[in-house]
Design brief:
Blueprint: E1 5-6, H1 10-18, E2 37-39, E3 63-65, E4 70-72, E5 78-93, E6 99-103, E7 113-115, E8 121-124, E9 130-145, E10 148-157, H2 160-173, E11 175-178, E12 181-183, E13 190-199, E14 207-217, H3 223-237, H4 251-255
Parallel strand pairs: 1-11
Antiparallel strand pairs: 2-3, 3-4, 5-6, 5-9, 5-13, 7-8, 8-9, 9-10, 11-12, 13-14
Amino acid sequence: MAKPKTEQSNEIMSLFEEHAGSGIGDISPDDLATPRISIIQPGSPQIKKNHAKYSPDAKVGDLLFTATNTFVDGDEGIRFLPVFYDRNYVEWKADREGFVGIHPLNTPLMAQTTRDASYNDILTKPDGSRTILQNTANHYGFAEINGELQRCVINMSRSQLKVSRAWLGLINGTRMNGAKGDFMPPAYSHFYTVRAVEVTDNPKGNYYNFTVTQERPLNNEEAELFGEAQEFSTFCQKGGMQPVLPESKPAAELENQSTDW
């Protein structure tokens, strides 16, 4: 994997180096919910005229910022400053119409699941009812919405997990040259652009997935933002973030998404 190196002025560089490697870890958040960024899919309620969540501003492939119900063209994308990452298992009803609970990565429930033909991890309860445990990656950070930076989270599951892993690889592969030599800057040293791209090779139908590219490092004028990001990251590390979940999705919408992990 390529390891991009970036030259930067001494002031902001010293901040990057002081907090080298920060911004990625495992947490058990339980106190605060944040807005989300999601993708408008072919089956999303926002494009169905008879649905309560219908919006004339929405179109397939848009990115949705849930706090203000703002739609952003997926090709244009959203600038995002990551501050923390974690992963957990989200439990849904078998038809994915209802949320059941959240479980840590080491949950013993996974050993009780069986994988069906669609690669869903099915948990059968003592009463015979069935639920799905869904591996979910959570990227917390600041998104630029209408020129303002907003705290939010991007949840990634199913085929989006590949994007999550590639994003983490990009963060971990970034290197800068500081006073002490080569180092890995914190995750929140660089802006990234999050876009939506159409996937056309899925036999069950086209859908949209995230794509993430590194944009640029923060500059000296953004040292205050770096401090805010550091505080946000620390808050997450101490368990201050409540897991933020995607809304329940109809099974038909999710069937259009790839099950390639």
